[in-house]
Amino acid sequence: MRNLNIITRKAERKYCRIFGKVRYLNNEVDARILNLSITGAAVEIRTPLYAASGSRVQILAEDLGTLNGIIRWSHNGRLGIQFDPNSNARAQVASYFRFFHKDVKPVLTR
C-alpha cells in the first residue's frame, strides 16, 4: 500500500486529563489536555483563543510545567499543538508519564 503523502503522527498519544492554561501573546485561557505524546497534545479550551494555525503558544500545567509549541489545527474549541523539537518537552512529558500519569478513558462531553 502507498502512503499517499499523508502526514501521520510520529508518536503514540495517551489519553489524559491535565488541567492548565494555554497562553497566546498576552492572552491566557483555561484548558484541559485531552491526549498527550512526546511530540504534541490535543487541548480543549474553555473560551475562544484567537490564534491561527502556525501561531506559537505555551501550555502551562502543574504536572508538566511550561511546554512551547505551535498550533497545527483548531476545531470546535480544541487545538492540536505540536511541541518545539528543540525544547525540553520530551523530557517533561516522559517525566509526567513516569511519575504522574494514570490511564483514563475518553469522556464524551456536550
UniProtKB/TrEMBL annotation:
What domain of life is recorded for the organism?
Answer: Bacteria
A Gene Ontology molecular-function term?
Answer: transferase activity
Pfam families xref list:
PilZ
| SUPFAM superfamilies, per database record | PilZ domain-like
Q: Which UniProt keywords apply?
A: Glutamine amidotransferase, Transferase
State if Cytoplasm is listed as a keyword: no
Coiled-coil annotation: which residues? Answer: none
- According to the entry, every stretch annotated as the PilZ domain falls at 8-93
Protein name as it appears in the record: Glutamine amidotransferase PdxT
> To which species is this protein native?
Rhizobium mongolense
Q: What is the lineage of its organism?
A: Bacteria, Pseudomonadati, Pseudomonadota, Alphaproteobacteria, Hyphomicrobiales
